[in-house]
Amino acid sequence: MIRKTFFILTFAFVFAGCGVVKEITNLSRLQFRLANIESITLGGLTFTDKTSIKDLSSLDVLKLSTSFIKGEMLLKFVVNVEVKNPNAENTASSKYDFKISSFPWRLLLNGREAITGNILSPINIPGDKEISYIPVSIKFNLIKFIRDKEYESIINLVFNLTRQKNTLTQLELYAKPVIDTPFGNIDYPEELKIISLNYTN
Fold first, then answer.
1. Is the pTM for the entire model greater than 0.70?
2. CA-to-CA distance for 32 and 194, rounded, in angstroms?
3. How far is the C-alpha of 178 from the C-alpha of 28, rounded, in Å?
4. Each residue of 60-84: pLDDT tens digit?
5. For residue 77, how many C-alpha atoms fall within 13 Å in the half-sphere facing its CB?
6. CA 157, 134, 24 angle in degrees (round to 5)?
7. Mapping DSSP to helix (H, G, I), strand (E, B) and coil, where does residue 133 land?
8. What are phi and psi of 95, to 5 degrees?
9. Cβ neighbours around 24 below 10 Å, total
10. Distance between CA atoms of 133 and 124, rounded to whole angstroms?
11. Domain segments of the chain: what residues?
12. 196 and 37 Cβ atoms separated by less than 8 Å
C-alpha cells in the first residue's frame, strides 16, 4: 500500500513538473513591443499634452530658452513595453506566475544610442494574464545628444515624441530579459530588438 501511494505521489509530481516545464519553455517565447510613451518632460516642462509650438506659452518658451543657454535640457519620459504571455492565450487560468528579474536595455533614438539602463525592480508576469507592461524610465540631456545642438531641432524632436502617431518607429529598444522561474533564471541568449506595432520574441 505504501509503495502504491509513493508511486501515485511520484507520478503526480512528475506530471505537475511537466506542466511547469512546459510553461517555462513557453516563457522563452514571450513577445514584446513598444506600446506607448508617457510622462514626457523637457527641462522640467511637461510636454505630454503639447504637440506644436502653438501649445507653448511665453513662460514655457522662456523656461526652455534658459535651459538651452545653460546647456542642460533634461529629457524624461516613460516607454511602456507590452509583454504578451503565450501561457495565457489558450487557458482561462494558469497556476504559475513568473517574474522578469532583470531587463538590461539600451535605447536608440533616430538610429543613435541615447541611453542604457535596467528596471529598478522585478516585473511580475501573471500566469492568467495575457498582457503585462514593463515601464522603462528614460532620462538624459538632450543637448548632448543632438548633433547640431540647434534649439529648433531639440524642440521638434520632443514634439515628435508627444505626437506618437509615427514616432515610435523612431525609437528602438534593445533588451536582454532575465526570467525568474521555480528552477532558476532563464537568460535570453541575445538582445531583442523591440519596436512598435509588431511583437518581438
1. yes
2. 6
3. 10
4. 999 998 988 888 899 999 999 999 8
5. 28
6. 140
7. strand
8. -80, -20
9. 18
10. 9
11. 2-194
12. no
